[in-house]
């Protein structure tokens, strides 16, 4: 086989003025999704944070909330751009987290249940606040649903939801502040 045949299948996107080749990943037979992995891509993270900050400039909010792990660099960079603090919902409980708030959802990439946990120390900083949910890619909305459940338990109000990209049914994600949209790839 030639190296051309061994290359993974990709989909090219332009996000925040930058081009990236996203690897296609089969999530179930006959269905592939393009994987955006921003970990280590500082140039893309900074560009996306600048553009999302512009899109959020008219939104009234107190802090940013994201889920562990791939969107943490985006939340950090967006925090720097907007001068708003950020909180990370963790995926595993650690004893130092005290009386944490939890919600369970289903991950599209693993197909497994995923728990989102708000550390007890962050509950007070979120209670009664307007927050913006931040994610890298919104596909099925299951992570969003889990984040909303935790934020509801913390008595926070979701002012907006923002992502680098949405994926799948574009009409379903019209209310999401995003920088682009990915199709689903079916055979």
Report what the structure shows.
With 187 residues, the protein is of the alpha/beta class. It has a single domain, classed as Rossmann fold, CATH 3.40.50.2020. It is 26% helix and 37% strand. It has 5 helices and 12 strands. The protein has helices at residues 3-6, 42-55, 72-82, 120-126, 142-153, and strands at 10-15, 18-28, 31-35, 63-67, 86-89, 101-106, 113-118, 130-138, 157-167, 177-178, 181-182, 185-186. Strands 4, 5, 8, 9, 10 and 11 form a 6-stranded parallel beta sheet that branches. A 4-stranded antiparallel beta sheet has the order 1-2-3-12, covered by helices on one side. The chain has a two-stranded antiparallel sheet with strand order 6-7. The longest helix is centred in the N-terminal third of the chain and has 14 residues, at 42-55. The chain starts with a helix and ends with a strand.
The number of distinct structural domains comes to 1
Helix fraction, binned, reads 25-40%
The CATH class designation is Alpha Beta
- Note the total helix count: 5
Strand content: 35-45%
Q: What class, by secondary structure content?
A: alpha/beta
Q: In the CATH hierarchy, what is the architecture at level 2?
A: 3-Layer(aba) Sandwich
What is the H/E order?
HEEEHEHEEEHEHEEEE
On the 0 to 100 scale, the average pLDDT is: 88
Overall body shape: globular
């Amino acid at each position: 086989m030639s190296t051309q045949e061994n290359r993974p299948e990709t989909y090219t996107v332009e996000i925040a003025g930058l081009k990236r080749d996203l690897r296609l990943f089969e999530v179930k037979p006959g269905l592939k999704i393009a994987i955006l992995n921003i970990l280590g891509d500082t140039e893309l993270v900074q560009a996306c944070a600048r553009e999302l900050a512009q899109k959020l400039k008219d939104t009234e909010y107190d802090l940013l909330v994201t889920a562990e792990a791939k969107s943490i660099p985006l939340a950090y960079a967006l925090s720097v751009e907007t001068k708003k603090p950020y909180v990370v919902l963790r995926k595993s409980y650690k004893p130092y987290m005290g009386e944490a708030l939890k919600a369970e959802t289903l991950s599209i990439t693993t197909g497994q249940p995923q728990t989102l946990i708000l550390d007890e120390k962050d509950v007070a900083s979120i209670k009664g606040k307007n927050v913006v949910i931040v994610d890298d890619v919104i596909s099925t909305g299951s992570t969003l649903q889990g984040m909303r459940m935790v934020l509801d338990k913390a008595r926070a109000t979701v002012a907006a939801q923002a992502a680098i990209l949405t994926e799948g049914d574009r009409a379903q994600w019209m209310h999401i502040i995003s920088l682009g949209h990915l199709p689903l790839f079916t055979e």
